Amino acid sequence: MWLPILGLIIGLFIGLFTHYSIPEVYANYLSIALLAAFDTLLGGVRAQLQDTYDNFVFVTGFFFNIALAAVLAFLGVHLGVDLYLAAVFAFGVRLFNNIAIIRRVMLAKWKKKA
Amino acid sequence: MKKNSVLFSVVLLVTGFILAYSFQYVNEKRDSSAHKSDEQWKREHQLRNKLIHEQEANRDLENKLVKMRDKVQTHEKKVAAQKKNAVHLVEQLNKYRMIVGTRKVAGEGISVTLSDGNYVTNGDNPNNYIVHQQDIQEVIYELLAAGAEAVAINGKRITTHSYIECVGPVVKVDGKRFTAPFIVSAIGDPKLLDGGLKMNGNTVDQLEARGIDVMVKREKTIVLDPLI
């Protein structure tokens, strides 16, 4: 149980102490990657609550989503179309959906207990 | 279960890294951009103030110079009146000053307006329809050859050591920039000057053949300011 939290803290520290600055153009990739990571994490939590969680799906989804988002942003930069907006939109919608489902499931569980 | 928590820690490590890194990146960027623009603004303000100051000083000095020259001339006139035998010398001096460009000159003359051609044939190089520095030079040479006593481009007096250079879309005359249309004014016998320019196959014909708008006008009085 403590290992994942330790991982999170180590990741946060590495990120905070990395002073390597990337070009302006690639700032979009970063935001996309962040959104993808959040989306997948929340998706995992939701799946767990709905008892449809699968380890393999979760881990591949995490890295695959990040990569896909980066590729989309890359294509967008080179085609002159703001394709990263599509990713932001998709992930944003999914983020809200996941949070809504998590909230409902939690509420239902809490009601059952009470 | 052991395998699960290792996987989770890797996933959370990556998430944490991305989160912290973008936080850090945005913070740094905001700091640097705000700092830079402030600095730049200050510097620009400073330079601008300096420039205005210099320009004012320049203008004052120019005015002073003009006044001084007027003074010198009035003194010379006085001297000329006093010494009759010096009259001839002063006249000569004035003539040379006129040629060198340090004296105000007024009299009959012509003005030649050179403008870029309006009509460019499709696919033709527009460079051929623009007034170039050598076109202006051509006109000036022709005017001088026809006996012009004083010549100016857009009011800027031309002297024996003036230079005209081509700087992209503008033309620099003794360091001052001018854009089309260029008005070359010359003082001299209008008949001679006009005739010289409009001789068959001469300057005007050549320029018009190249697609440049040339307008020659005889003027009753042209006043050319002295060179600063």
TrEMBL record, chain A:
It is found in: Cell membrane. It comes from the Bacteria. Its main location: membrane. It is a multi-pass membrane protein. Keywords: Cell membrane, Membrane, Transmembrane, Transmembrane helix. Signal peptide: none annotated. One of its GO terms (cellular component) is plasma membrane. The chain crosses the membrane at residues 5-22, 28-49, 56-77, 83-102. Belongs to the sbp family. This is Small basic protein. It comes from Scopulibacillus darangshiensis.
From TrEMBL, chain B:
Pfam families: DUF881. Keywords: Coiled coil. Residues 44-85 form a coiled coil. InterPro entries: DUF881. Belongs to the UPF0749 family. This is Uncharacterized protein YlxW (UPF0749 family). It comes from Scopulibacillus darangshiensis.
